[in-house]
Amino acid sequence: MMAIPTIVRERTPQLVVLAVILALNAIISPGFFSIEIQNGRLYGSLIDVLNRGAPVTLLAIGMTLVIATKGIDLSVGAVMAIVGAVAASLITSGYSLPATLAGALFVGLACGIWNGALVALLDIQPIIATLILMVAGRGIAQLITEGVILTFNDKPELIFVGSGSFLNLPMPVIIWIVLAILAILVVRRSALGLLIEAIGVNRRASTLSGVNSRVILLAVYAVSGLCAAVAGVIAAADIKGADANNAGLWLEMDAILAVVIGGTSLLGGRFSLIGSLMGAMIIQSLNTGILLAGFPPEFNLIIKAAIILIILIVQSPASQTAMANFRANRQTMAIKTESREHAAR
Amino acid sequence: MRTFKLLAATAFATALTVSSAFALTVGFSQIGSESGWRAAETSVTKLEAQKRGIDLKFADAQQKQENQIKAVRSFIAQGVDAILIAPVVATGWDAVLKEAKEANIPVILLDRQIDAPDSLYLTAVTSDQVHEGKVAGDWLVKTVGDKPCNIVELQGTTGSSPAINRKKGFEEAIAGHDNLKIVRSQTGDFTRTKGKEVAESFLKAENGGKNICALYAHNDDMAVGAIQAIKEAGLTPGKDILVVSIDAVPDIFQAFIAGEANATVELTPNMAGPAFDVLDAYLKDKKEPAKWIQTESKLFTPADDPQKVYDEKKGLGY
Fold first, then answer.
1. Are A124 and A192 members of one domain?
2. Residue B79: domain span
3. Chain A closest-CA separation from residue B194 CA (Å)
4. What's the mean pLDDT in A24-43?
């Protein structure tokens, strides 16, 4: 038998689900896998999945690290709205692109550090600590945009971040792939990933054994804020405007779902960034598939919920055990039949 | 202490005399400022009041009915001549409206209807959402003529009344014209982001957009998102695919100027103008108006000097 790399073997459920959903999409819409070059960029439904999935993918990177520490970050959608508003107001008041991006990312980082401080320094439970910014964030964003959709139709340099392309790939796709690779290298090529998992398993024990859990906790929330900032800039640049009411609305839920589908437990500990990225792609393939299918919109959420329920049931510990038992039974049966045949002879 | 109270009372009385120098005092309980359109409605109402020399007392309810009821009660206590309410919800108004009626203060509803006996208010000034959809549909029927035309529709938030009514009106308008057909209809949640994403899927599903002749969006924001998607697909919005939408927010006029959109139906933010007109007639000649005053759903196309309309609307806080 050919040796399957561990990384593939560990993520088999996600790969199977992704393959099944993509196959379903191809049945629904025969041109799903066709990719052509349009205006110097790759164009097709598959590219749409990668491109539209960018915000959730980025959020999922930060969310995975936070969840691995047994935390959760509910504020990421609101941070996207704040950062989009900041980016739009900076660029429209005449700042250059580097200054705008730096300002926007700094605000996202500050939001993350705020969350991290509440969790790591004041020991407030993460769900409550981040709920504060989730609720307040949209208000802050609206204050920045003064309640209107702040547009920047005449700023091609910022629009490029959302709808430009590089090497024929849409910019958002490049950004999330680069950031994902960076994040994976940082946590897996150093001990950082292990330390994050240690905190998630038992924060007190890891502190006692010399892990600086405060700094690491602060850092993971800061990273989550930063990821949300990048997603916020992309979302604003994509529509050439900052929509404080709707940017990133409910995306924190999709990001959490992506992490869970990716096989990381909400109880903290072991995490998989690759799994979360696949989770995000599964969710986006589902969204795109539903849009392509042409069902009446009343069914959108029901279909999505039903499919996600199936995925979670398949992944649940109970059905995993059942499958393992089934496999073991079949093996013993096979062995029994074999030995009986032996005896008969 | 007593002298202070006396002083305060005198000051209050003086304030009253000053305000009675105006023709009328009208209280306006606004929902809040949740959307650009709402902000525009507020500023237009203030402008209209100023134009008529009406002293407008403005109360922002921040999306809460309890704040609106408080505001109405305080207007009654202040003895205003009339009250305008943009009701945040449809139910729960009976008690406070009865109080206003007992105080002989006429109440006019702006922009939304309520579930209460219509004897409790003077009139309601609202747009007709079904009619808005119909105006958009009529424009498309006229523009397309006898040519076959596949339409894709971006609906508003599923189940919301503007989405249901604007869909219904549009379908009524194209009914009986067999060359016009809605081939795809999906919700874009009234937002630019979703409008763009859904439009992308429409384009993919309909042979790269070559099968689509027109796009109908239940609001301008979704149309603006869709226009970007059409451009990114290598087609020319406004030419290859006709774009018609509703609301007439300033940004759609920019699209008109760029030749990327073809028509929009205005949801006028000027609900107060007609309200003040009927109020005037009622207070002067005791003339009871109809219980529903429908605002005009005006059609705008690039032929209507979009730059001028854009400049006019830009300052209204959209």
1. yes
2. 2-127+269-287
3. 10
4. 87
